[in-house]
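In practice, a research group might receive sequence data for several interacting partners and want a quick structural hypothesis before committing to experiments. The following worked case mirrors that situation: the sequences arrive first, and a predicted assembly follows.
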Amino acid sequence: MVSTDLLKKVVNELVGPEALDIVLYLKGKEKISEFKIAKDLKMEIHQVRNILYRCLRYNILRFRRKKDKAKGWYISYWGLNEREIPFIYKKLLEEKVQKLRERLEREEGTHFYLCRNACIRADFETAADLNFTCPECGEILELQDNRRTIEFLKSQIKKLEEELESIEPVTGRRKRKK
Ligand SMILES: [Zn+2]
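A structural hypothesis for the assembly, expressed as tokens:
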């Protein structure tokens, strides 16, 4: 089973905390109708559907539509895509690392100029165009020591990479695919 902790991270980051109740409710369950979810969680059906489809977009949940023979309409039955969760999280972290690397590259390869009143931060070209004067307050733009930013980005990247290493696949009984 996927850990609740991992599940929470994925849902919070991709869909939002409002989806947590539904996703955690579906953990370990199979083929639960949207009406049952709404009833059990005391939510409005349109709210439930909205969240279910948002989770579906990220492949966190899966569903099947079945015709209700008595009523003649279609009902969706939902379940958690357990095995996908670690992969979804991995992708999420990899994208973050990629963005941080791009930022790091920019920080390392550019000199930034800063207004002492913190109105603007500009790269060399932009600062030169402004005659090294802040267009907002008229103060002189000073070369910024961005070593701390660089250190911070490096440590963030390292942290994420360690977390990436620690992601484990969901093991256990493979559910029958239909
Ligand atoms: Zn300024």
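Before designing any experiment, note the following. Residues 115, 117, 119, 134, 136-137, 139 surround zinc ion (CB under 6 Å). The chain has two domains: 4-80, 87-166.
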